[in-house]
Amino acid sequence: MAADSKPDTHEKPRQRPPLRSWNLHVVDSFDVPPGMRRVVLTADDIHEFDYKPGQAIVMMIPLPDGGTGRRDYTIRSQDRIQGTISVDFLLHGDTPAPTWARRVARGDIIKVRGPRGGTVLRPDADWHLLTGDETCIPAIAHILETMPAGTKAFVFIETSDRNGEIALETKADASVRWMHRNGAPAGPSGLMNGVIQDFVLPPGKGHAYLIGETSNVRRQRHTLIARGLTRDQISSEGYWRPGRIGGHDHVDD
Q1: Is 199 inside any structural domain?
Q2: In this structure, are strands 68-79 and 56-62 parallel, antiparallel, or unpaired?
Q3: Distance between CA 74 and CA 212 in Å, rounded?
Q4: Distance between CA atoms of 192 and 140, rounded to whole angstroms?
Q5: What residue numbers bound the domain in which 28 lies?
Q6: Are 165 and 155 in contact (CB under 8 A)?
Q7: What 8-state DSSP symbol labels residue 151?
Q8: Which of 83, 180, 209, 244 has the most CB atoms within 10 Å of its CB?
Q9: Do residues 224 and 208 touch, judged by C-beta distance below 8 A?
Q10: 238 lies in a domain?
Q11: How many folded domains does the chain comprise?
Q12: Sheet of 173-180, strands arranged across
């Protein structure tokens, strides 16, 4: 070290560990309600795949120009006996990911990385609040169906109308309400934030899992903080934004 130099006392940003890469083979694909396409995947080393419900994989989706684009998709389920994982794609428009899910064939290979994501069940919480829109149904359904029996949960899911509702299986003590836009387009709105403002916070320590359109998630997060929840009691991720194809937002402000 030079005589006139000073040691660097600035704390360097914490680096996240690199995500593991996988070559996944398509086993099957078929339609599932509400308006989704399920793709079932496997790999030679799939027995090493370890995740928590609510986490996602980053998929290298083929693009029209011959390249690939990163897309985050929640893991819908895992069958350890069959050695598969499943991913549900909301069939909205002709963007690359839904197009790939419609056209994919048995034996096709896709590169993915992960799992990743922090919207996973906090077992030390006394109660759990989950909110999301159509894009979040796979994550919410998987978290609910893997919750321990008797877990106290309050679930609010936004859809266009009743046709977007599905049966949700759970052993938890869960209250589920479907919120309808009644013809209004999906996107930024005050619908779910109004629900959060009116929600009576139960006694004890709760944890909120807020997912969906980024601005809606951020608005709900700010409302819950204003109502007394601490930042570490809220897991919040923006799955999408109007006009943006792909992308994922970590909402922590």
Answers
A1: yes
A2: antiparallel
A3: 12
A4: 15
A5: 21-116
A6: no
A7: -
A8: 209
A9: yes
A10: yes
A11: 2
A12: 173-180, 152-159, 127-132, 206-213, 234-240, 249-250
